[in-house]
Amino acid sequence: MFGCQAHPPPIIDERPWEPFISREDFEFAEITHAAAMSKDLVNKLLRLVWRIAGGKTKTQFSLKNQNDIAAAWSRASVLLTPFQEDTITVEYEANEMEFSLYSRPLWDWALDLLQDPLLKPHFVWDAQRLHKHNGTSFKRVIHEPWTADR
After folding, report:
1. Going by C-beta distance under 8 Å and a sequence separation of 6 or more, which residues neighbour residue 143?
2. Positive or negative torsion for Cα 98, 104, 107, 110
3. Torsion angle of alpha carbons 122, 123, 129, 131, nearest 10°?
4. Which whole-number Å values give the CA distances from 149 to 72, 124, 125, 127, 142, in the listed order?
5. Residue 103, SS3?
6. CA–CA distance, 77 with 25 (Å, rounded to integer)
7. Which residues of the chain form beta strands (DSSP E)?
8. What is the tens place of the pLDDT at every residue in 53-76?
9. DSSP structure class, residue 132
10. Residue 50 reports pLDDT greater than 70
11. DSSP secondary-structure letter at 135?
12. What is the dihedral of CA 91, 96, 101, 105, to 10 degrees?
């Protein structure tokens, strides 16, 4: 028609994820790249994926989306002393500015940790004096609060 040439149909790449072996490999790599995950985190996540895929977990993997993860964190958060919000007012250039400060009561948090049977054996209650031999004599070493004099 009026000197127009027919163009060949566009080439459709049936495997746009190549050189990755599969689309799933590409999507996994794309997610880890977008999340800027470190090599260690990527390897840890891959070990978890293969453990789940191989049925080597004692329980079924149940998380389906971010809401499931948020709900799990909410359930876990009630096990320890919650954060409390305090408002701090500061005068700056003749204006009063308010800032929210989130904190935990230190005493309650320490009691939470002390009641944890997995952590309890790791607390040091007695003072210690450590010495190291330097080739000729022993020298005292202070490297933790409980190794000092006071």
Report:
1. 130
2. negative
3. 30
4. 44, 15, 14, 8, 9
5. strand
6. 34
7. 84-92, 95-103, 130-133, 138-141
8. 887 777 787 888 889 989 988 888
9. E
10. yes
11. S
12. 70
